[in-house]
Amino acid sequence: MNAERPNGRGTADEVADLARRAGQLAGWAARTGFALGRKLPGVETAERGVRQVERQLLTELRRRLDEVDDPYHAALTAASAMNRPSVPGTVEATVTIVPARDNAHEPLRAAMAELLNHSIGFGRDRAREYFYAIILRQLTPDEARILSALSDGSPFPAVDVVERTGIGGTGRVALRNASTVGKAAGVSLPDQVPGYVTRLIGLGLVDLDEEVPSLETQYEILLTDETVRDAEKHVKRAKYVRRTIHISRLGAQFWQACDPSLG
């Protein structure tokens, strides 16, 4: 087994390599339109293979990211080391944790202390890298595909399905942020696109804007989507609130830093 480099550089280098490999695979699929399921002999089987490799790489990347610069993980590891019985003949690492009245919260306090320590030593570039790594760790593979599809700045239609009230207003929302961007990105779970888009908006990577009339045809296509049609069944009278989504300023900066085609 290869020994890790001092200060965790071995793990950090492995993360960078996994990110590069996963990114190159996703970037290639996006550029060639491979994930859109072209009706050619053998394509379906080959696509399943690509998806499997992509999932394996991203799963391993997520595990590595969880271990790198995660203050809560570090705090739990330290607490575990404190409570682990000593083994004769071994040298135990010394870990100092300030006693707290509520031991159940000690990992949280240690994690906060770790973050505050980071804030002292981080420069602008390192702080930005850490911030982007935290965002990256929260993304699903489908969400990464959606962000890739939005990365050129193009807007995509989005629709909310709401209940129309008797005086022409709107009531409860049956479906929020349905969009055609999922099909364009070739996501694995098309029915989850509204949730993906909502999460990306919540992370600040995607902005929600007003309706764009030039996308009328795409809006009409979106209204025939199975997810939208199913939401219609849950309201007495459906009303469609049209909007658009596009990559945000933060999303563009994040993509610029993570874009696999630039590696």
TrEMBL record:
Domain of life: Bacteria
Listed InterPro entries: Abi_alpha (IPR025506)
Protein name: DUF4393 domain-containing protein
Pfam families xrefs: Abi_alpha
Protein source organism: Amycolatopsis eburnea
